[in-house]
Amino acid sequence: MExxxxxxSTSVPETNVDDLPPKxxxxxxxxxxxxxxxxxxxxxxxxxxxxxxxxxxxxNQRDEVRRRYLTKSPCQPYGHKFKQISKGSGTKRFNPAWFxxxxxxxxxxxxxxxxxxxxxxxxxxxxxxxxxxxxxVKEGFNSWKKPERFLTHIVHALFKQDDKAKNEYRIRLxxxxxxxxxxxxxxxxxxxxxxxxxxxNKGNFMELLKYxxxxxxxxxxxxxxxAPGNNQMISSKIQKDFxxxxxxxxxxxxxxxxxxxxxxxxxxxxxxxxxxxxMGVVFRFxxxxxxxxxxxxxxxxxxxxxxxxxxxxxxxxxxxxxxxxLLNVVGASxxxxxxxxxxxxxxxxxxxxSGDVKTRTRQIRSVLYQDLQLLAGKDQDILNxxxxxxxxxxxxxxxxxxxxxxxxxxxASFCKKHNVEMLIMEEDFVDLRNPRKRTNISNMHHYKVNCxxxxxxxxxxEFNDRFTEVTxxxxxxxxxxxxxxxxHGFDKEKLV
Length: 496
Known about the structure:
By secondary structure, the protein is mostly helical. It has helices at 59-71, 97-102, 118-123, 135-139, 148-158, 163-185, 204-215, 217-220, 236-258, 305-310, 314-331, 334-354, 363-375, 382-402, 404-417, 443-466, 469-479, 484-487, and strands at 85-86, 91-92, 106-109, 114-117, 263-271, 277-286, 292-301. Residues 1-42 are annotated as: Disordered.
């Protein structure tokens, strides 16, 4: 190999100091690489004279050093005999009252007899002289005749952003708000299915914002591509924030219009296009001019307590997720819906002929179905509803205490009839989320304790939280004032 490649000498040639470029040619703001320091975070020096420059710490240590100094008390020696300094005519010294006036910002170095700012030391730019004086960080300030410079430096540190950047941000924000306001007034959606650059239709918000920029050069210069990458004000989260902000403003305006007057609450239930039940809420009141007004507040999607609470459990939530996916797949096609109804009809006919229809009903549904249907009835009065709530709570508790064996018997019967393999309850439980990790519990313990009992406990607790004794008494009192059947349910003893 030596005939193809020449050997490279490993000796270092001597360098004459005169041959090096002069230091004056280097950039003054270019800092040397910070040395590797072994530090004890719990023993950082408090005296400013002993502190190392924040940039001398490793990059991955600086935030930890900053947090440590922020949790420590600033160096404020109240009992120190501050040195008199003569500048010009007369002598002045540091006033300890400034510690209270400027709080944790201000520190004092005894060795230099000068004042410093803690936050400027911790968060000053790497280029020290950029953006203002370095007196409060490195050199120290001792011109006690000009204490107003303390406040001036704080204001400069907090508000050093130039007016141009603020103006551009204001134009960009107003453009996004105007586009959102235009779409909301007309009930149009903001987001599109795709808002990337290559998408043909990026949604109403993006398209309207782009059109606004095309009509106004001042706006075009500060939005979309011309805006900073992390401050474009166009993300879906920002759009939702605009919508929520407008909704809050509308609600606040309605409350101011009602003032402290009497109002009625109108609640009506309907279903949306996906057949999910929802509740519309409307305020009805008389304004200051005597006119009757109705103001729509919002829509709340309804959900049964047993379903909402059960979804808090991972295994149950996963089951409901699969059911929801199945319903979306079936419901998206009329053909699939017809096929599903036909299969269901055939299965019901077979079950009716064989007399096995009841055995296929889920146990929890058989316990709660009638009560929940009555609770959801349109003509249900409050007294009967409260009675059914108590009945539902008792049935849930009974199911939790004595229902496991009967449930397992029905599961075994179902699996046997449909040739479904049933788990051996005495074997170790395997968590599908982490199958390699040993759980040290049996299938019986997981499904009985972690699933069955846990979910029923959550449901019982939720019923108790929603229908407390105080809430129940209040609803019963409200029922006594019902005008149905000429106040047939009026009972003054319930109101006392």
